[in-house]
Amino acid sequence: MAALLHRLHRTLHQIEDGLIVAVLLFMVLLAVAQIVLRNFFGTSLVWIEPLLQNAVLWIGLLGAMIASRNDEHIRIDVASSLLPEKYHPFLTTAVDLFTAFICVLVAWYSVGFVIEEYDYAGAAFANVPSWLLQSIIPLGFSVMAVRYVVLFVLGLLGKRPKMQEPVP
After folding, report:
1. What kind and span of H or E run contains 167?
2. Considering the entire predicted model, what is its pTM?
3. What is the separation of C-alpha 111 from the centre of its chain, rounded to a whole number of angstroms?
4. pLDDT tens string for the chain (168 positions)?
């Protein structure tokens, strides 16, 4: 059972890594194509700009998902420098719970947003519905929420992995 879970975990990481590489490569190729079309042929494809805008959203959220799997999000942490070291595990556990809560909140409201986009039936470009491209928002925040809930539980059990030390 543990081996199956480990394999599933690794596969999900590979999917995230593959998606971010594919989206970034796709963005670069489309941007280059747009530049070539404009500079050498005096034309452009009108659907590339909105597609690239949505791809930036995907890159941002995929990057956040990848950062959350290793607990490498940007931290603004004043409390740990003010509190004695013995309180740091409690602070980290509280921050994990707060982060999970915020991610759940954003995921919840973004589901409503995507449903409204679906009901509105707007197209992002060509015939691609905007709700489909924006569905990365609830997905990404749901994944991050689950990861921080797991870190919270591990913190309660005293088995939370050590955070990465910030690079000076």
Report:
1. none
2. 0.87
3. 15
4. 778 878 888 998 999 999 999 999 999 999 999 999 999 999 988 889 899 999 999 999 999 999 998 788 877 777 778 888 888 888 889 999 999 999 999 999 999 999 999 998 888 888 899 999 999 999 999 999 999 999 999 889 888 887 666 555
